[in-house]
Amino acid sequence: MAFSLRALSKSRQLFASRAILQQEHAVPVRFFAKEAGRSTVLKGDEMLKNIFLEVKKKFDTAMDVLRAEKITIDPEDPAAVAHYAKVMKTVREKADLFSESQRIQYTIQTKTQDIPDARTYLLTLKEIRIKRGLTDELGAEAMMMDALEKVEKDLKKPLLRNDKKGMAVLLAEFDKINKKLGIRKEDLPKYEEQLELKIAKAQLEELHKECHEAMDTQKKREEFKDEEMVDPKSLDIRNFI
Fold first, then answer.
1. Least confident span in 66-70, 75-79, 80-84
2. What is the pLDDT of residues 211-231, one digit of tens each?
3. Full DSSP string of 69-122
4. Residue 200's CB: how many other CB atoms inside 10 A?
5. Are 224 and 130 in contact (CB under 8 A)?
6. Is residue 215 a contact partner of residue 85, using CB atoms and an 8 Å limit?
7. What is d(CA 173, CA 150) in angstroms, rounded to the nearest whole number?
8. What is the mean pLDDT of the chain?
9. Please, are residues 25 and 98 in contact by the beta-carbon 8 Å criterion?
């Protein structure tokens, strides 16, 4: 038990902080700027204090959920992955954090709000997708660019996003692409769930790897050289947070 306790010391920090402190879970500064605008202007140190207290509140809320739920560190077990995804969803809902799709939507809104033309907009979407580690398995991006090429050829000029008539034509072409690929608006919740499961599996894989690395490090110490390494999936993280 002593070995597993020491071995998880690093991994538990990774697990406990992942829900709150990673960049994609961070509370947007724009949020605090918006809140500050509702009352008197806050001094810099007071705003920082409010940010700290808000993040701490979210962290404590997340920890309360994690202490109540048993997480099995087994990324190869679909049931364990599904349960982990469910727990993290509960964390997000109770701590008022973005889901992955919400983070992507927020990124798109902030990165594209000042882009005037459709081509740069689509290229920016591709850049965001790549940075988020998402794949375009259906080849939708190439089809969308082909559709844009077709519309701009008819217009004989670049398509601007404030061109209502031209954008309507382009969106109609996008609807055809969605229909061809079998993508329906009503299926979006299903796609979001699939994405969250992929993320849950990737996070469990990372945690599993961290556990092994921590145990390998501890194994080199004299006091643990005769102890057997434990299987990460046998550990109950609630004992270490």
1. 66-70
2. 888 888 877 787 777 777 778
3. S-----TT-HHHHHHHHHHHHHHHHHHT---HHHHHHHHHHHHHTT--BHHHHH
4. 21
5. no
6. no
7. 9
8. 81
9. yes
